[in-house]
Amino acid sequence: MSIYLSGAFWIIGAGVVAASVAALVHRIPATVGLSGNNEVAGQVFTIVAGLHAVLLAFVLISLFDGVSAAQDDSQREANNLVAVSWSAEALQEPVSTKVRQITMDYSNTVVSQEWPQMSDRGTVDSTAGWQQLEQLRDTIAKAPTAADDPWQESRKAAATDQLWEVYQARQARLDAAASGGVSTVVWFALLIGSVMVMGLIYLHGGPKVLSHALISGTLAAAITLLLFAIYQLQNPFSGGAAVGPEAFTAVLDRLN
Questions:
Q1: Buried residues in 142-153 as b, exposed as e (16+ CB within 10 A)
Q2: Which of 132, 141, 185, 206 is most buried, judging by how many CB atoms fall within 10 Å of its CB?
Q3: For 55-110, how does the pLDDT look when each residue is reduced to its tens digit (9 = 90+)?
Q4: TM spans, by residue (predicted)?
């Protein structure tokens, strides 16, 4: 099911259920005097809803920043990988060709093996990728350079520095995939807080059932929208805002 269809299903469904509950509350004889609670219930509602809104906003912004950071780290890893290959072109053969081949093999490993695992469950069998980077490091470190050619020395040093950037960005990407998203404690607070906010809205009373139902439905839909967004942003490599492997497919295109 499309993320838009599933999102609309949950949001509209929550709004309809909340509005129906509000209509049922008005049918209970014991709730006729609820309008007398409006002043006190309104004050409590303001405090509880405000705290819950802060929590929702904090979690949502943190996850959005995490997705943006994952995108930046993936792009940085891919760009430095290309820079390693380009820097190694100044080295003697067969080192230059070997570096290019290992770089392409590593990109293929990331795209075909690691990315599906990150999207599926977050845990990655990263052994092959690390071994390829180690092979790349050893190849560059052992590359001979002409004593009277400072350009080769500078390119070898540049390739080494750029490879270190690849290491750092790769580790950040794997850490982001294995972070686990929102913890159970935070989900507990989000869900219980949502229930409390909706419970308080039903303690308000008024002469018009329709207005109460619309207010309750709109509030429930808004809360569900935020919860759905949080759920989709938990893993930066899956869900509605998933970071894709396009940066590494671009590496393959450049090197080919």
A1: ebebeeeeeebe
A2: 132
A3: 999 999 999 998 999 999 999 999 999 999 888 888 788 888 999 999 999 999 99
A4: 7-28, 40-64, 180-203, 209-231
DSSP of 28-64? SGGGGGGGGGHHHHHHHHHHHHHHHHHHHHHHHHHHH
Domain, as residue range, for 201: 3-255
- Which of left, alpha, beta for 146 (phi over 0: left; psi -120 to 50: alpha)? beta
Location of structure tokens 């006190």: 40
Show the tokens assigned to 216: 């309750």
**Other beta carbons within 10 Å of 104:** 17
| Residue 96, number of CB atoms within 10 A of its CB | 19
Domain count, the chain: 1
Alpha-carbon distance 236 to 177, whole Å? 7
